[in-house]
Amino acid sequence: MIEIAKHRTPKNLIIDYKQGNCEDLSILEDNCFDFIVSNMVIQDLANYELAFREMYRLLVNGGSLIFSILHPCFVTPESGWEKTENGEKLHWNVDQYFYEGTYEQKLGDKEKMVLFHRTLTSYINTLLNTGFVLESIVEPKPSKEMLEKYPSFEEDLRCPDFIVFKLKK
Ligand SMILES: C[S@@+](CC[C@H](N)C(=O)[O-])C[C@H]1O[C@@H](n2cnc3c(N)ncnc32)[C@H](O)[C@@H]1O
Predict the structure, then answer these.
(1) Contact 75, 69 (CB under 8 A)
(2) What's the CA-to-centroid distance between 90 and ligand 1, angstroms?
(3) 26, 27, 43, 44, best to mutate for ligand 1 pocket (most atoms within 8 Å of CB)
(4) How far out from the chain centre does Cα 167 lie?
(5) Of 39, 86, 89, 97, whose CA is between 20 and 30 Å from 23?
(6) What is the pLDDT at residue 13?
(7) Closest ligand 1 atom to the C-alpha of 38?
C-alpha cells in the first residue's frame, strides 16, 4: 500500500491511498515526492533493486528516503536465541550470513514464513549504485517508556532486530 499526502495543512490532511507493487510504480510520475518512508517492507521484496530504482525515480532532486528493514547482520537463516533447558536466553545465534535468497523460518509460535536474506553490503552497494547518498543509519533501541509498557522488548538491548537508513537523492 502506498500512502500519498496530497495536502499538507496539518489540521486537514487529505491522504490519497493508492495500491500497487513497489517494484513497479509506473502509476506515479517521476520526481513527484519530497519524502518517501517505508517501514519493514523492503526485506520482503523479491526484487528490492527495482524498488530502490522506483523510489529514486519518484523523488525530487534533494528528496529523502527513510526505510527500515530487519537487521540483515542478525536476522539470517538459522538465527535465533540459544536457550537453557528452562528457556533462559543465553545469546543470539547468527549463521549463514553470506547466504542471499529465500529461506523459511518460524517466527515465534507462528507457522513458518518465507523470508529473504541479503547482506548489508548488498543493500548499501545497491543503494549507492542506484544513485542515493547515504546520510545516516540507526539501529533502534527500545526507550525506557517502551520497556515499561512492553518489558519483553528488553532483549532488543542485547541485539538489534532492525536497521533504519536515511538517504538523499
Ligand atoms: C512486515 S509488513 C509491514 C507493514 C507496514 N509497513 C507496517 O509497518 O506495519 C510488510 C508489508 O509489505 C507488503 N509488501 C510485500 N511485498 C510488496 C510489494 N511488492 N509491494 C508493496 N507492498 C509489498 C506486504 O503486503 C506487507 O503489508
Answers:
(1) no
(2) 32
(3) 44
(4) 13
(5) 97
(6) 79
(7) 6
